[in-house]
């Protein structure tokens, strides 16, 4: 992982994450980025402090009679331990890289081909089957077909690097592409690239082969 | 904090009493100097963590439970759910008290996060969300790379947040409040403010960036 991360989630995303108000897919992407990025962990910590200030300014609503006694009575009660998170098996990654902790409760399908030198894998989030999260594994020097989006696409680079014409994205970098961005990521020649992506809406590929592939993959 | 006080869970003050100060928890420091209400809350929290002090716990409850309930209610919980979640948050505060680090966050910020996670867990109706991650591991992730934090006191952080929030324009404060604190989607904010979604997103991005910059500038 590079030591200096150059591309971060924008501040509005980090603020929403601090307030725990992101949808499942984007939250998973931001959480994965935070594991790699001390700078953004710091920003989120600062934003969380804002929540304390806002709560402090709240006028308050009367709590039920006896609420305090009820809570005090529960303090020594048995602790209902939540079941330990289920760590689900994951397909292999290139030597030297590990799955982010944020994904450990997710189900990750095996790598499936989606074109020459291109594989993908579905990431299923147990508590939210609607979340559209996937992994892309693209071979060295390969490019993803040029595409745009009907919604926002968030990408966190887990391994390797790609260049989408706007910038180079290395392991640890985060990218947000909106509907107005038409891009064609090219993986650097040194090695393959693995990205975690959350798609809100569909990717719109330009070529018919890509359209066919996207229909099969369900992007 | 008086250590010889018997825990007296059976004789709380009348309900609705939102006052912080009880006779045995006077707002006075060890050397007799007055203690600000915020410092008092920190002390209560430390007493809960270190001594399982129920008096201090009751003090925190009286101050924060009504605020927490009001916020939960306002942000989509029914009154019954808000009451239940506020109570659950305090049970969680008691059990996780040793993890509280006054240098990192105020009791309010910590409670806010606990309550919000409890509500998310409840909505998911499962327990494999991040709140249930092994505490030590979660702490390790949170701690990594936050070394420069320790240099600032909590009070300095609170001051930073106040200064930064007051440095935003009224509109920006509203946007931050709506999206972060009141749990509104961008689409709902756009409907509420009668603005196009794209405009809301742009303004929100600007407001959040402004807040971050102000927070950074306010570092002593």
Notable traits:
heterodimer; A: 219 residues; alpha+beta; 12 strands; elongated; B: 220 residues; 9 helices
Strand and helix map with partners:
The complex is a heterodimer of chains A (219) and B (220).
Chain A: H1 11-18, H2 24-36, H3 38-56, H4 67-75, E1 107-108, E2 112-115, E3 118-124, E4 133-138, E5 147-149, E6 153-159, E7 161-163, E8 168-170, E9 174-177, E10 186-187, E11 193-199, E12 203-205, H5 208-217
Antiparallel strand pairs in A: 1-3, 2-3, 3-4, 4-11, 5-12, 6-9, 6-11, 7-8, 7-10
Chain B: H1 37-51, H2 54-74, H3 79-95, H4 107-124, H5 135-143, H6 154-167, H7 170-181, H8 186-193, H9 197-217
Helix pairs in contact in B: 1-2, 2-3, 3-4, 6-9, 7-9, 8-9
**In oligomeric terms, what are we looking at?**
heterodimer
Percent strand of chain A equals 15-25%
Into which percent range does the helicity of residues of chain B fall? 55-70%
Strand content of chain B: under 5%
The run of helices and strands of chain B is HHHHHHHHH
Instruction: Indicate the radius of gyration of chain B in whole angstroms.
Output: 19 Å
Main β-sheet of chain A, in a few words?
Answer: 7 strands, antiparallel
The geometry of chain A reads as elongated
Please report the two chains with the greatest interface, counting residues with C-beta closer than 8 angstroms to the partner's C-beta. Answer: A-B, 59 and 84 residues
Estimate the mean pLDDT confidence of chain B: 76
Describe this structure in words.
The complex is a heterodimer of chains A (219) and B (220). Chain A has helices at 11-18, 24-36, 38-56, 67-75, 208-217, and strands spanning 107-108, 112-115, 118-124, 133-138, 147-149, 153-159, 161-163, 168-170, 174-177, 186-187, 193-199, 203-205. With 219 residues, chain A is an alpha+beta fold. In chain A, the strands form 3 sheets. In chain A, strands 1, 2, 3, 4, 6, 9 and 11 form a 7-stranded antiparallel beta sheet that branches. Chain A has a 3-stranded antiparallel beta sheet with strand order 8-7-10, with no helix packed on it. A two-stranded antiparallel sheet of chain A has the order 5-12. In chain A, a hairpin with a 2-residue loop joins strand 2 and strand 3 (118-124). The radius of gyration of chain A is 21 Å and the shape is elongated. Chain A starts with 10 loop residues before the first helix and ends with a helix. Chain B has 220 residues and is an all-alpha fold. Helices cover 61% and strands 0% of the residues of chain B. The two termini of chain B are 30 Å apart. The chains are: A alpha+beta (219), B mainly alpha (220). Chains A and B meet through helix 1, helix 2, helix 3 and helix 4 of A and helix 2, helix 3, helix 4, helix 5 and helix 6 of B.
């Amino acid at each position: 992982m590079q030591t200096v991360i150059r591309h971060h989630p924008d501040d509005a995303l980090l603020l929403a994450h601090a307030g725990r108000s992101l949808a499942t897919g984007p939250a998973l992407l931001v959480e994965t980025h935070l594991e790699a990025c001390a700078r953004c962990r710091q920003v989120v910590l600062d934003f969380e402090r804002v929540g304390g200030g806002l709560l402090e300014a709240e006028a308050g609503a009367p709590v039920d009679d006896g609420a305090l006694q009820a809570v005090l009575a529960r303090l020594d009660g048995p602790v209902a331990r939540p079941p330990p998170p289920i760590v689900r098996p994951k397909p292999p990654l290139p030597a030297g890289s590990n799955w982010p902790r944020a994904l450990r409760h997710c189900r990750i399908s095996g790598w499936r081909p989606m074109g020459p030198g291109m594989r993908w894998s579905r990431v299923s989030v147990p508590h939210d089957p609607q979340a559209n999260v996937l992994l892309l594994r693209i071979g060295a020097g390969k490019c993803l077909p040029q595409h745009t989006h009907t919604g926002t696409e968030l990408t966190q680079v887990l391994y390797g690097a790609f260049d989408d014409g706007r910038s180079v994205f290395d392991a640890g970098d985060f990218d947000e592409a909106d509907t107005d961005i038409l891009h064609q990521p090219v993986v650097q020649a040194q090695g393959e690239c693995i990205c975690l992506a959350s798609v809100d809406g569909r990717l719109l590929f330009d070529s018919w082969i890509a359209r066919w592939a996207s229909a099969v993959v369900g992007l | 904090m008086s250590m010889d006080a018997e825990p007296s869970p059976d004789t709380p003050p009348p309900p609705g009493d939102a006052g912080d100060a009880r006779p045995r928890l006077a707002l006075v420091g060890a050397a007799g100097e007055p203690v600000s209400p915020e410092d008092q809350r920190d002390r209560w929290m430390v007493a809960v963590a270190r001594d399982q002090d129920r008096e201090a716990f009751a003090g925190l409850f009286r101050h924060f439970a009504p605020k927490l309930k009001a916020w939960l209610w306002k942000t989509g919980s029914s009154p019954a759910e808000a009451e239940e979640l506020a109570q659950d948050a305090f049970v969680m505060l008691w059990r996780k008290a040793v993890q509280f680090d006054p240098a990192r966050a105020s009791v309010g910020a910590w409670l806010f996060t606990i309550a919000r996670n409890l509500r998310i867990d409840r909505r998911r109706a499962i327990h494999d969300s991040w709140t249930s991650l092994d505490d030590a591991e979660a702490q390790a992730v949170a701690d990594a790379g936050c070394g420069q934090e320790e240099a600032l006191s909590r009070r300095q952080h609170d001051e930073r947040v106040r200064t930064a929030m007051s440095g935003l324009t009224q509109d920006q404060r509203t946007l931050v409040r709506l999206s972060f604190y009141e749990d509104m989607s961008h689409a709902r904010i756009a409907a509420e403010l009668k603005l196009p979604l794209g405009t809301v997103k742009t303004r929100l991005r600007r407001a959040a960036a402004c807040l971050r910059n102000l927070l950074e500038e306010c570092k002593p």
